Amino acid sequence: VGREQILRVHLARRGLPLCDDVSVPSLAAMTTGFTGADLANLVNEAALLGGRAGKEAVGRAEFDSAVMRSLAGIEKKRSILQGEEKAVVSRHEVGHALVGAAVSRLLGGFSGEPSRLSIIPRTGGALGFTY
Fold first, then answer.
1. For this UniProt entry, which segments traverse the membrane (predicted)?
2. Active-site residue 84, yes or no?
């Protein structure tokens, strides 16, 4: 509830037009652990992504990308993995996803299932991630 209220303050302060697919409660749910400053940066990053794409309103895709940038860093699209390194990182991330799904089922909904997996290197030093 607190994150939702903080997000509403930052959205109102920026006067950011939102698409119909954006739900502030769902944004709050996917930003567990974010501080007030993190949420302000999230709103700013989503606005920048929407502006760069020439959009009139910011949608869920921009917020999803902004969350991923906050959690894992910016994609290094020029550093695409190849060969054996790609295979190793792929297996590693699939392992995280399998364990995450099993834990989620064992805990009966107290832990979210993995929803995104990537083997694109990020600026934070990660070669991949599971969210």
1. none
2. no
Q: Are residues 3 and 58 in the same domain?
A: yes
CB 14 within 8 A of CB 44: yes
For residue 111, the 8-state DSSP code is S
Catalytic annotation, pick one of 45, 75, 93, 113: 93
Task: Domain of residue 123: give its range.
Answer: 83-130
Same domain, 97 and 53: no
Give the pairing type, strands 129-130 and 117-118. Answer: antiparallel
Distance CA 114, CA 22 (A): 21
Q: Is 77 among the domain residues?
A: no
DSSP 6-18: HHHHHHHHHT--B
